[in-house]
Write a structure and sequence with these properties.
Largest sheet: none
Structural class: mainly alpha
Number of helices: 8
Strand content: under 5%
CATH superfamily: RNA polymerase sigma factor, region 2, helix turn helix motif
CATH class: Mainly Alpha
Helix content: over 70%
Shape: globular
Radius of gyration: 17 Å
Number of strands: 0
CATH architecture: Orthogonal Bundle
Oligomer: single chain
CATH topology: Rna Polymerase Sigma Factor, Chain: A
């Protein structure tokens, strides 16, 4: 497991360096690797219908700012910070005054149970909210979440366990 994480980090370092030099293919590969993480972070904070567009905004912003990244090892946390800041900017925009709860784009089909579950997850503390969305919505495994976010695997396990317990309590479950 540790060798896999080191191997991915090493591959990321090469991709980041190539992207800084202007290699769009390398940046595209970083997008493929980190889009689910960014989507999960955004989905924990903004209406689902807007999360997709904001993922694009985050990566455009990252591409423009990539030369300012001090170390390649900081990329994951830096990208996650851009996503969190973009979500805050979303709510600061004056033209956005729709409430988060109950927001649904009628033109998009959706599962009402899934929207209810997402609303419940959004009521959890941030650490659990992000980790649960990355696991349950984005389909990332615990080790993937740890590798992509820079959290320790033990922290991911604890966040998932506590978050699921809190989610069951919020939904009226007895486990």
């Amino acid at each position: 497991m540790m060798m896999l994480v080191e191997s991915l980090a090493s591959e990321d370092d090469g991709l980041i360096r190539a992207a800084v030099r202007g290699d769009r293919g390398a940046f595209g590969e970083l997008y493929v690797r980190y889009a689910r993480m960014v989507h999960g972070i955004l989905l924990a904070r903004v209406p689902p219908a807007d999360a997709e567009d904001l993922v694009q905004d985050v990566f455009v912003s990252a591409m423009k700012q990539l030369r300012g990244l001090r170390t390649t090892g900081a990329f994951r946390g830096w990208l996650a910070s851009i996503a969190r800041n973009r979500a805050m900017d979303y709510f600061r925009a004056a033209h956005r005054e729709e409430p988060l709860d109950g927001h649904r784009d009628p033109s998009r089909p959706g599962n009402d149970d899934a929207l209810v579950a997402l609303d419940l997850i959004r009521n959890l503390p941030e650490a659990y909210r992000e980790t649960l969305i990355l696991r349950l919505v984005e389909g990332m495994t615990g080790p993937e979440i740890a590798e992509r976010t820079g959290l320790k695997p033990e922290s991911v396990r604890v966040n998932l366990c506590r978050g699921m317990k809190m989610l069951r309590e919020l939904s009226g479950g007895k486990r």
